[in-house]
Structure formats: C-alpha cells, structure tokens
Design goal:
- The complex is a heterodimer of chains A (653) and B (97).
- Chain A has 653 residues and is α/β, with parallel strands linked by helices.
- Chain A folds into three domains: 158 residues, P-loop containing nucleotide triphosphate hydrolases (Rossmann fold, 3-Layer(aba) Sandwich), CATH 3.40.50.300; 61 residues, no CATH class; 362 residues, no CATH class.
- Chain A is built from 29 helices and ten strands.
- Chain B has one domain: Ferrous iron transport protein A (FeoA) (SH3 type barrels, Roll).
- Chain B has a six-stranded antiparallel β-sheet with strand order 1-6-2-3-4-5.
- Classes of the chains: A alpha/beta (653), B alpha+beta (97).
- Bound molecules: guanosine-5'-diphosphate (GDP).
- The site of guanosine-5'-diphosphate has 20 residues of chain A, from helix 2 and helix 5.
C-alpha cells in the first residue's frame, strides 16, 4: 500500500500537438496503459519512468489550451491535476508560438503547481529566427525552463535531470500578472471570504470564479456554505461594470504581460526563406493545386497502396499461398481425421469453420488491408496533411451540415467505420456528430470493403467508375438532405495548421501498430462469433431459411441467388460480406454489371455488428435504430434503381 | 489611423492589428483567444478561398468566413516590396530543381 502512495507523479500538460506524446514515449518506454478517465470518454496514458534510482509515474494529459476549460479534454486535464495532485507539472509548449502558449504557464503558476516549462520544437523556432534567453525567461516566470527538440531527442537528457532535481520541490503560487485594479480588488475580496483549504491557490480560484467557471462555482457552493452568496454577489457586481465578458478582459491583460515577458527574453532574428515544405503547404491549400494533390494522395494511398498492394499482393500471398494451399487443407484433414462428429467438424473447419473461414477472413483478408490503410493514415496524420485537407473541404462539407473538422473521422472511416464513429466525438455540435455517424454508416466503405471492391472491380474500370460515382452521389445527396432535415446551427470552422513535417518513422509505426492491435482485439472475437452464428444457422436450418428469404430481394435487383449469402454475411460484418463477394467473384458467378450492383448495395448496406454497437454507444439506441431502419431498405432501393437504369440504358458488361 | 475593417473584407496579403472580436458565442471567443487571435495581435491574411488563412505569430490558422466576419482589424500601411520578394524566392526554388 505504502509504495502506492509514495510513487511520485509527473503530469505532462500542454495544448495538442506540442510534442507531449513524443516526450512521454521517450520518458516511459514500454508498459504504457491507456484508459478512459473515470466517467468520461477521454483517454489518458500513464507510464513508468526511471529517474536515477527512483521510479516515477508519468501521465500524458489530454490537450489543454486554457486553465478555464471549454472542451471535455480540458476538463479532464484540470480534474486530473486537482484530484491526483502530481508532484511535478511539466508544461510542454511549442517554441515558435510562445506568445500564445505562455498564458497557460501563467495560469498554472497562479494555481500554484510545482512546475517546469519545457519549450519544445526548438528546431522550428530556430528556423523562424527565434532566440530564447532561457535564463531571463526562467527568472521572469520563477520556474526552470528547458529547451528541447523532442523528435530528435535534443534536450531530453537535461529534461530528465531537471525532473529529478525538482520533483520534490515545494509548490509555490505566484501572481505573475497584475490585473486592472477593479479585478484585483475583487480577487482579494473573494480570497478573504474563502475559508476552506483548496489545492489551488485562492487567487486562482477567485479568478476562475470571476470568469464564471461552472465546476468551481459548484465547488464553492459545496465548501463555502457561509460565504457562497457573498462571493456570487462580488462576481455579479464586477461583471456589471465591464462591457465584455470578464474572461476576455482577463485574457487580454494577461496577454499584455506576456508581451512584456517575451520582449525581455526572446529575440526575433531574421527568419529563413520559405522552405520547400512551406511551398508545398501553400500548394496543398489552394484549390487549383490542392485538388490535384488530393487526387494524387487518394490514388497512390488508397488505390495503389491499400487497393493494389494490400488487398492484392498481400492478400493473394497470405490468403492464397498460406491459407488455401497449406493451412486450410491441413486443418480440414486434421479435423476430419480426429473429430468424429460432423457438426463439430463444421464448427471448426470446412466451409464455414472458425479456423477455415473466421480466422482466415480476419487474418488473411481483412487484417492486411486494414493494416495497409492504417499505415497510410498514420503517415498523412503525422505529416500534418489532415488540417490542410480540412480547410480545403470545409466549404463543401458545410453543404452537408459538417465542418472541415469532420474530414478526420470521415477519412478514418475509409479504414474502419467503427473506429471513425468513436472519433466523431471530437466534433463540436451534436448535429455534426449525428450527421457524420449516419454518413459513416451509410456511404463510407471501410478499408476491408474498399480494398476488396477495388480489387474486384479493377478489371472493369466502368464498373469501378459507376460504383464510385453512385456512392459519392449518395454521400452528398443524403448528406445534404439530412442537413436540411436535422435542426441546429451551422457548425463553425477554425483550425490551426501546424507546419508540414517529414513523418517520423517510429511515430508512424507506433500509431499503425496501436491501431492494428485495437482492430485485431476488436474484430477477431467478432469473426469467431460470426462463424459460430453461421454454423449455428446451418445446423438449425435458420441460415438457409434467411437465405431463401433474401433470394427474392436479390433477384429483384437482377442478381443471382448466390449473392443472397453474401448479403447475409454482410449482416455479421460489412467486410465479411465483401470477403464473401470476393469468393463468389473468384468462382466467376457474376457479370460485371451484377458485381457493380452488388458492390454498391453492399457498400451502402447496414454497418457491421461492431460499427452498429459503437453507434448505439455514441449516439444512443433511438438514433442508431432509426439509421439502420433507413439504411436497410435504402441500400436495396439504390441497388434496384442502379440495376434497372443500367439495363434500360443497355449498359452491359 | 484607418478605420477597423472585418477580416473578410480585406484583400489577400494585407497585414494588420486585431482590434476586436465580436461574437455571441463565448466558447468560440475563448478558443480564438487561446489560438492567439486577440486584440493587439498582428496578423496577415494569406488566403481567402476556400477558407480564410491567417498567420498569427509563427502559426497559420484556417477560419471560415463567418468567423472571419467577426474579427475586426486595422490594416497597416501596405508594404509592396514583400510580394515581389516572395515571388523571387519561389522562382529561385524552381531554378534549383
Ligand atoms: N519539428 C519537430 N516536430 C516535433 C517535435 N516534437 C514533436 N514533434 C512532432 O509534432 C507532432 C505532434 O507531436 P505529439 O507528441 O503527437 O503531440 P501531442 O499532441 O502534444 O502529444 C508529431 O508529428 C511529432 O513527431 C520537435 O521537437 N520538433
């Protein structure tokens, strides 16, 4: 028990994208646990680090812009700081943007944490010609200042030494800013009314109360039964004497002080001429050059790499050479030799067995494709392309009720709709979250589907074009109609565009593997479950009955009976259905037109079980069921219309 | 001194100092402040379409036109030389290829 209490804690705090994770990984190495913060869906990573002979716990907190929280992430970080009382807070900032990073340093100092400031991305700061006088800055702020370039490992040794030296220092609060006199008076008046002992300095609590921080208001109500009303009175009074929100006035005064601090500790030298990446960044963001670049990225990334390489070369190898030729015949013969009961034989092997179908699909078909996609996604994520894509599509996305920000879950949806649906959380309005969840379920094919469909239709370019055109049309049209139908405000769009960077291989591999691992843990059980359900369906005859019910529906789309089975598999997993289609196409049972219609219907068709479960979790039962009730008939309807249209027009292939 | 104009009313390449942000959404205001968009900040408008892009300090930020309309600034006197210089840089890069 005692050991528990004495392991010192270090919390890394800072805005998103300043290099916290890179520093965290460098400090902790292996044995990292990522878990949701209790009662929230925000993830917090924890790991152990060695400093000299002591072991410490390091916590990588969710991104925080301001100590006055707006987002769920900021709320979690503040709660974490207040509840877990880390022995040392490391504020990580971006060296090229000190002016806008220091407000949080000041707020943390006001609150009174034992802290150090780590100025990261010094390589980029130097590129912009910034010279930071760390001694001067350290004096002004009253805390140690370390300069690092985490991605190159620069300064991390010194960071460790400093952590070791300061981890047991006393926490001190310091008022680095004198606000205007009416605010200062209110701060001291509130301060003198506070009777409880808080973790945060009283000055910080008073400031947060003046800015109408709801959590702190609740806290005060609880802890200051006597003076609660008086405190609220002071807040009301001063609020009335300002025209703008107090949070605005306070941040502007703080910002003024930061200007002074920076003027005395940072020199702005000559910045270097625009580098190649800065030109590239410009080209990516202007439509005339940006759209061709986007098409190029999609072609190389999705079509060539995920489609041809992942779904073609790798799948052919693992599925064809390994499973079909070696593993499956061996498993079949083992099972037939050693297991006397036919029904158990079928559960484990043969056409629908756990090993021969479930695991084969999961490992040989789906995993290579999803892995290729995750590698591609991690690459563009780490390079900084996604924010540029977001600004490029914002105008178009506004038409379907989304903001450019939604491009991130939407792109991820081309990998795995289940994961993407979880990411829709990061969107700001409920309306945006509903629309994106719906579109992900309807018209964004996941990479397993996409890879297989690209591989299947590669031989018929016309089919591929029709498929892509139909799905894109459905996406935009249904998006547009949904946006009209669902009430709510237009989303707003503002996003920082970090510099383009050469992706860091270790970072990319780490993210890819983490995503693949998540996928593997999520899907393999479901694939096995699906095999068992199908086996059970066969055994009881229920499966055949469902197929016979589906046959008229597929015939209605002018498709042969054998596709009914594919759609049924689609219930269990979308990609599973696509994999069934792959088997069917291999046997040559479908014409180009039929393949195209099946591909379109299957793409639009209900999401897989995992996707559906996550949609329920994120958006609630009612919304999820409504979506499925729409999607199910709609997918077949589009299939019917497409099939009829093509036949009527005499397009046959 | 010139009068304040909204960010969506100025031409690409204009620099200026932000004087005010008018918005009825306090959360949005606080987010903008946290991104370095506050009265007194020096900015340059880099692009208008499809989204507005401004540079603040050493960072670029993309905004939609609704938000751009809420940010008022006083343009600094034009500095015509800068533009030519930028072209020269990009050509010199092309020559290097
Ligand atoms: N140029 C440069 N890039 C860095 C540095 N530190 C981190 N990065 C990159 O910045 C990006 C964001 O880093 P990350 O650790 O994920 O940021 P977090 O959101 O704060 O955890 C990644 O692409 C890193 O590789 C640095 O010192 N210099």
């Amino acid at each position: 028990m005692q050991e528990f209490n004495t392991t010192p804690k270090i919390a890394l705090v800072g805005t998103p994208n300043v290099g916290k994770s890179v520093i965290f990984n460098a400090l902790t190495g292996a044995y990292v646990t990522v878990s949701n913060y209790p009662g929230t869906t925000v993830e917090v990573s924890r790991g152990k680090a060695r400093l000299g002979k002591d072991q410490v716990e390091v916590i990588d907190t969710p991104g925080m812009y301001s100590f006055l929280p707006i987002t769920a992430e900021e709320n979690v970080t503040r709660q974490l700081l207040l509840r877990e009382k880390p022995d040392l807070v490391v504020h990580v900032v971006d060296g090229k943007n000190l002016e806008r990073m220091l407000p949080l340093t000041i707020q943390l100092r006001e609150a009174g944490f034992n802290m150090i400031l780590t100025i990261n991305m010094m390589d980029e700061a130097r590129h912009f010609g910034l010279e930071i006088d760390r001694e001067a800055l350290s004096q002004q702020l009253g805390i140690p200042v370390i300069l690092t370039t985490a991605s190159l490992g620069e300064g991390l040794g010194e960071l460790r030494t400093t952590l070791r030296d300061f981890i047991s220092s006393e926490a001190t609060a310091e008022a680095l800013v004198q606000y205007d006199s009416s605010i200062e008076t209110a701060i001291s008046n509130i301060g003198s009314l506070l009777e409880h002992e808080y973790i945060m300095a009283k000055r910080s609590i008073s400031l947060l109360l003046l800015q109408e921080d709801q959590d702190i208001q609740e806290l005060i109500k609880d802890k200051e039964p006597r003076n609660h009303q008086k405190i609220l009175g002071i807040t009301r009074e001063i609020k009335a004497s300002f025209n703008e929100p107090l949070s605005y006035a306070i941040s502007i005064q703080r910002q003024k002080r930061i200007k002074e601090i920076i003027a005395s500790s940072v020199k702005q030298g000559e910045s270097r001429p625009l580098s190649f990446t800065e030109h590239l960044s410009k080209w990516m963001m202007q439509p005339l050059t940006g759209i061709p670049i986007l098409l190029f990225v999609v072609y190389v990334g999705l079509f060539k790499f995920v489609g041809e390489f992942g779904a073609g070369t790798i799948v052919d190898f693992i599925e064809g050479e390994l499973f079909e030729e070696r593993l499956n015949p061996w498993i079949d013969s083992m099972v037939l030799t050693y297991i006397p009961w036919p029904s158990l034989q079928q559960l484990l092997a043969l056409d629908y067995g756990i090993f021969t179908m479930g695991i084969r699909y999961a490992v040989a078909i789906v995993l290579p494709i999803v892995g290729a996609f995750f590698l591609f996604f991690s690459l563009i994520e780490d390079s900084g392309y996604l924010p540029r894509l977001a600004m490029l599509v914002d105008r178009l996305f506004k038409k379907i009720g989304l903001s450019g920000r939604a491009v991130i879950p939407m792109t991820l949806g081309f990998g795995c709709g289940t994961m993407a649906t979880m990411v829709t959380r990061t969107l700001e309005t409920r309306r945006e979250r509903i629309i994106s969840t719906f579109l992900l379920a309807l018209a964004v094919p996941c990479s397993a589907q996409l890879g297989l469909i690209l591989a299947l239709l590669a031989g018929t370019p016309l089919g591929l074009a029709i498929w892509a055109g139909t799905v894109a049309l459905v996406f935009l049209l249904i998006g547009y109609l949904t946006a009209k139908l669902i009430p709510g405000e237009q989303p707003s769009f503002y996003m920082e565009l970090p510099p383009l960077r050469m992706p860091k291989l270790s970072n990319v591999l780490y993210k890819t593997l983490a995503r693949m691992q998540w996928y593997f843990v999520e899907i393999v059980p479901l694939f096995i479950l699906a095999s068992v359900l199908i086996w059970f369906g066969h055994l009881t005859g229920g499966f055949d009955k469902m197929i016979s019910l589906l046959i008229p529906v597929v015939n209605w789309l002018n498709l042969p009976d054998s596709t009914a089975e594919v759609f049924l598999f689609g219930f269990f997993r979308r990609d599973y259905g696509a994999a069934g289609l792959y088997d069917l196409a291999q046997s040559g049972a479908l014409t180009g037109l039929q393949l195209t219609v099946t591909a379109v219907t299957l793409t639009l068709f209900v999401p897989c079980i995992a996707h559906f479960i996550v949609a329920i979790k994120e958006r609630g039962w009612k919304t999820a069921i409504l979506m499925v009730l729409f999607i199910f008939p709609f997918a077949f309807l589009v299939g019917k219309v497409l099939s009829t249209l093509l036949i009527t027009l005499g397009i046959n292939f | 001194m010139e009068n304040p104009v909204a960010l969506n009313q100025i031409t690409k390449g204009t620099r200026g100092t932000i004087v005010s942000i008018y918005t009825d959404d306090e959360r949005r205001l606080r987010k903008l402040l946290a991104m370095g968009i506050y009265p007194g900040a020096q900015i340059e408008l880099l692009q208008r379409f499809p989204s507005f892009i401004i540079s603040v300090g050493n960072t670029q930020i993309a905004l939609d036109s609704d938000i751009a309309a809420e940010i008022k600034l006083i343009p600094s006197p034009a500095r015509p030389r800068r533009r030519r210089k930028r072209w020269r840089i990009s050509f010199s890069w092309l020559n290097m290829q």
